[in-house]
Design goal:
Helix content: over 70%
Number of helices: 14
Strand order of the largest sheet: 1-2
Number of strands: 8
Shape: globular
Radius of gyration: 23 Å
Distance between the termini: 65 Å
Number of domains: 1
Length: about 450
């Protein structure tokens, strides 16, 4: 394995691990704040219990996310020193703001966790709201930096070096809005359905457990609302890619030939040698319409670029198909739940819906991982699109394969530890009998 591949695998593994905790850090505080607000409005102790349990879960994920995020920050400098030396002054602004948001989140998460009986109810909710907002802001600033790598602005090249640097321009680069919307919504969808799936699994054991009923209702409401919005954000993001990175658009659509009335491909495997997408279902003209709102518009294909600039086609195309398919599935589930609520007055008695939610629990995170494959692998061979190649940014340090193995073991250990701690939280959830006994003493 070459140093370049080792560095890319190392960074990809670290990012793939960290992004799960980032998504939870963005979305989980919203769930706990909603639960506490409902407690204050209704006086029901179940909502307070939910808020406390979700707060502990948020703290666990935040702690591990802080560790994995720190590793990523070191890896940027160690694995990609030429990139950081070249671009550090430009992307330093969003990373600095991300650090500010991170420490704000950490401070107010501490107040939230230890201030239940020490601050007023309004101040406690305010602390939770700040945690939710700062967690979202932290993710937004990181995505802005990544969006800049896809559409670099805020500098002028002079003898291959950036001059006249405007770091503020990084925050509103052409790709920023589309990526921020798409990724932030994905975080709420993934976390909402993951939490809903856990409570659905517990409801299969105790169908009348109000703790899990209320937990499912809140999580599904948050995940479901954002799942219905995501196709719109995804369409906007895809059109942004088609305009700013047409080669990436051609790669994830599997479009080899520049053409009008370009077909939308469902499935298929790209064959770079034959210049065709095999075993795909093609819908004529639909890609042209989706990219430009015009069936007759021309969509740029891979043939417009030398093959040396093509990204790896199969992983990009397959990952894109997985992401889109999951988005469609998750958008259907809240519609199904809404229909059951309308027809029967309850979503908790449908075994099929509960099983569907259990099956959907990991799908949001699978879609997030697939989306980042599309974004990062789809930009190759560039680390900064049309400015710096990935091969020119990698460290010359030997022994990356060994470090990749070490970090793989560390991440596996952390994953097992987190899974165990969260499982203990789930298993300690109050049973229906315990809830009834507690209610009887009130």
């Amino acid at each position: 394995m070459t140093d370049l591949l080792s560095a890319r695998y190392q960074m990809g593994m670290s990012l793939g691990f960290h992004i799960i905790f980032s998504c939870v850090g963005i979305a989980m505080p919203l769930l706990m704040v909603i639960a506490e607000i409902l407690h204050q409005r209704t006086g029901e102790a179940i909502y307070l219990t939910l808020a406390r349990r979700w707060a502990v879960g948020s703290a666990i994920m935040f702690a591990v996310g802080a560790v994995s995020g720190t590793v990523l920050s070191f890896e940027l400098g160690l694995l990609w020193p030429h990139f950081m030396r070249w671009a550090g002054a430009i992307i330093g602004m969003p990373f600095s703001l991300e650090g500010f948001a991170f420490f704000t989140e950490a401070t107010f998460l501490g107040i939230y966790l230890y201030g239940w009986d020490r601050v007023s109810p309004r101040m406690h909710i305010a602390a939770g709201v700040i945690v939710a907002l700062s967690g979202m802001a932290s993710g937004i600033f990181v995505v802005m930096a990544n969006a800049w790598m896809n559409s670099p602005v805020g500098f002028r090249l002079e003898h291959g070096r950036p001059v006249d640097i405007n770091p503020i321009a990084t925050l509103h680069n052409p790709s920023a809005l589309a990526e921020v919307l798409h990724m932030t919504i994905a975080a709420y969808v993934a976390t909402g359905f993951a939490v809903a799936g856990i409570h659905a699994a517990m409801l299969l054991r105790e169908r009348d457990n109000r703790f899990h009923r209320m937990g499912l209702a809140i999580a599904l409401a948050v995940g479901g609302i954002f799942a219905l919005v995501q196709p719109v954000a995804g369409d906007y993001a895809a059109r942004s890619v088609a305009r700013l990175q047409p080669i990436k658009n051609a790669a994830f659509e599997g479009l080899f030939k520049t053409q009008a009335y370009a077909p939308l491909a469902i499935g298929g495997i790209p064959d770079a040698g034959a210049r065709e997408l095999r075993a795909a279902i093609e819908l004529p003209g639909l890609l042209s319409f989706l990219d430009n709102h015009d069936f007759s518009s021309v969509v740029i294909g891979l043939d417009a670029y030398p093959e040396s600039e093509w990204p790896p086609l199969t992983p990009v195309h397959v990952a894109f198909q997985i992401m889109v398919a999951i988005a469609g599935i998750l958008a259907l589930l809240p519609l199904w739940a809404g229909y059951l609520r309308w027809r029967t007055g309850s979503i908790y008695h449908s075994v099929w819906l509960l099983y569907a939610l259990i099956g959907a629990a990991p799908l949001g995170f699978v879609a997030v991982e697939a989306g980042w494959v599309v974004t990062e692998v789809g930009r190759q061979p560039w680390i900064i699109y049309r400015v710096m190649r990935t091969a020119d940014a990698v460290t010359p340090m030997p022994g990356l394969v060994a470090w990749f193995s070490v970090f793989s073991i560390i991440y596996a250990f952390l994953a097992v530890t987190v899974a165990y701690m969260l499982w203990r939280q789930v298993m300690q959830s109050p049973s229906a009998a315990e809830l009834a006994a507690a209610q009887a003493t009130v």
